[in-house]
Design brief:
This protein is an alpha+beta fold and 373 residues long. The chain has 3 domains: 155 residues, no CATH class; 48 residues, SH3 type barrels, CATH 2.30.30.60; 85 residues, Alpha-Beta Plaits (2-Layer Sandwich). The protein contains 12 helices and 8 strands. Strands 4-3-2-1-5 form a 5-stranded antiparallel β-sheet. Strands 6-8-7 form a 3-stranded antiparallel β-sheet, with helices on one face. It is elongated, with a radius of gyration of 38 Å.
Length: 373
C-alpha cells in the first residue's frame, strides 16, 4: 500500500499567493493600468536617455543640430514619456473600457500635441539663434548678414505663429464638445465666416506682409530708414510690427503691413554709402574758387570722408543771396552727418574770417526826402 505524500505548507502558501495575484491581474483593470503606466514611464526614461545620447554623438560637428538639441532638451523630456504613455494606453484593449482611462488618454493626447508644438517652436528658435551667431550684424560690411538675419527672423516668427495656431486647433479638436461645436459652425458658416474673416483681417494682413518682407526684403535689420519724417534704424522685426530706433533713442512701432502699403526711404537698401548735402547762402561778391579749395581741404582732413564726392556748386540765386550746395560722400549715414556738420562749420568760419563782407545782406536805396533843404 502506497504511503501518502507529505504536504508542504510553504509551497501551498506560494501557490495560493500566485493564484491570488493572477486573480487580481485578471479581474482588476486598475491594477493592469497602473502596472502599464509604471512600465511605460520606465521605458520612456531609458529611451529618452539613449536617444539623446545617440543624437548628441551624431550631431558632433554640426552646430545647428547641436543648438536644436540644446533648445529641445526641456520639451523632449516631456514628449517621450507622454508618447509612450499614449501608446501604452491604446495598446491595452481592456484599459479602453474604463471611462477614466479614456478621459486620461484624451488628456494625454492634448498634452502630447502641446508639447510637440512647444518642441517645434524651440527648434525654430534654435535655427534663428544659429543664424544670429553665424551672421553677426556688428561688422563693417554687414549687408549679407542683415539680409540673412532678416529672413531667418521674420520667417521664424511667422512659422512659430502658424505652428502655435495649428497646435491650438488640434488640441481643441480633441475635446468632443468643442469638436461638435466646430462641426456645427462649419455647417452654418455663412455670415459667421465673413465676420471672422473681417475680424482676422489685421492679423492675416500682417502675416502676409511678414512673408513678403522676408522674401522681397524692402527692409532689413539695422537698415537706416526715414518714416513719418523720423530718421532711425530697424531694431526689431516681429510677426506683427517693426520697431524703429530713432536717433534720439525713441522707439517708433510700425505695423508690418504699413511697409507694404506706404512709401518710405531706405538709406541702406543696397549699400550704406551716402552723399550728403550742405547749403550755404552768401553774397554775390564772394569768390567761388577759394571756397572750392577750402571745401576740398575740409573733406580731406575729415576721417568721415570716403574720397568719392566733394563738390561745391551754385544751385540757386535770388534778389538777396547766392545758394551754394556742397556734396560730400561717406561710408554710412552716421559718418555723413558728422561730415556735413564739419564742412558746414569749417566753411562758415572760413567765410567769416576771410570774406566777412560776403555774408548775405539786405540792400536798400534811400533817396532824398522831398522838401528837405
Amino acid at each position: 500500500m502506497a504511503r501518502p505524500r507529505p504536504v508542504d505548507a510553504r509551497a501551498g502558501r506560494v501557490e495560493g499567493m500566485s493564484d491570488d495575484l493572477l486573480d487580481i491581474w485578471s479581474h482588476q483593470p486598475w491594477v493592469r493600468l497602473g502596472v502599464t503606466v509604471i512600465v511605460a514611464l520606465l521605458v520612456a526614461i531609458v529611451v529618452h536617455r539613449l536617444v539623446r545620447a545617440l543624437l548628441w554623438r551624431v550631431s558632433d560637428g554640426h552646430p545647428m543640430a547641436r543648438e536644436m538639441l540644446r533648445q529641445a532638451r526641456a520639451p523632449m523630456g516631456w514628449l517621450v514619456p507622454l508618447l509612450v504613455l499614449v501608446v501604452a494606453l491604446r495598446t491595452r484593449p481592456e484599459a479602453a473600457k474604463l471611462h477614466v482611462a479614456t478621459t486620461a488618454e484624451v488628456v494625454l493626447v492634448i498634452a502630447l500635441i502641446a508639447v510637440a508644438t512647444w518642441l517645434g517652436v524651440r527648434c525654430i528658435n534654435a535655427v534663428e539663434f544659429f543664424f544670429c551667431r553665424r551672421f553677426p550684424v556688428n561688422t563693417k560690411d554687414n549687408l549679407r548678414a542683415r539680409r540673412v538675419l532678416t529672413q531667418a527672423r521674420v520667417l521664424g516668427r511667422t512659422a512659430s505663429v502658424l505652428l502655435i495656431l495649428i497646435g491650438l486647433a488640434a488640441c481643441l479638436m480633441m475635446i468632443p464638445g468643442v469638436r461638435e461645436i466646430g462641426t456645427s459652425l462649419l455647417a452654418s458658416a455663412g455670415v459667421a465666416g465673413l465676420a471672422v474673416g473681417f475680424a482676422a483681417k489685421p492679423v492675416l494682413s500682417n502675416l502676409i506682409a511678414g512673408l513678403q518682407i522676408a522674401i522681397t526684403q524692402p527692409i532689413r535689420l539695422d537698415d537706416v530708414v526715414i518714416i513719418e519724417g523720423e530718421w532711425g534704424r530697424i531694431e526689431e522685426i516681429t510677426g506683427t510690427y517693426v520697431v524703429v530706433r530713432i536717433w534720439d533713442e525713441r522707439r517708433l512701432v510700425v505695423p508690418l503691413n504699413w511697409f507694404i502699403e506706404n512709401p518710405f526711404q531706405n538709406w541702406t537698401r543696397t549699400s550704406s554709402q551716402l552723399i550728403g548735402t550742405v547749403y550755404l547762402y552768401v553774397d554775390f561778391r564772394v569768390p567761388l574758387e577759394p571756397l572750392r579749395e577750402e571745401v576740398k581741404r575740409l573733406c580731406k582732413e575729415a576721417p568721415q570722408w570716403d574720397g568719392r564726392v566733394c563738390v561745391l556748386q551754385v544751385t540757386d540765386t535770388n534778389e538777396h543771396a547766392v545758394q551754394l550746395r556742397i556734396l560730400a560722400s561717406s561710408a554710412d549715414s552716421g559718418s555723413n552727418f558728422d561730415l556735413r556738420c564739419h564742412v558746414r562749420e569749417g566753411l562758415l568760419a572760413y567765410v567769416q574770417q576771410h570774406y566777412p563782407d560776403s555774408l548775405p545782406r539786405m540792400r536798400a536805396e534811400v533817396s532824398g526826402v522831398p522838401g528837405a533843404g
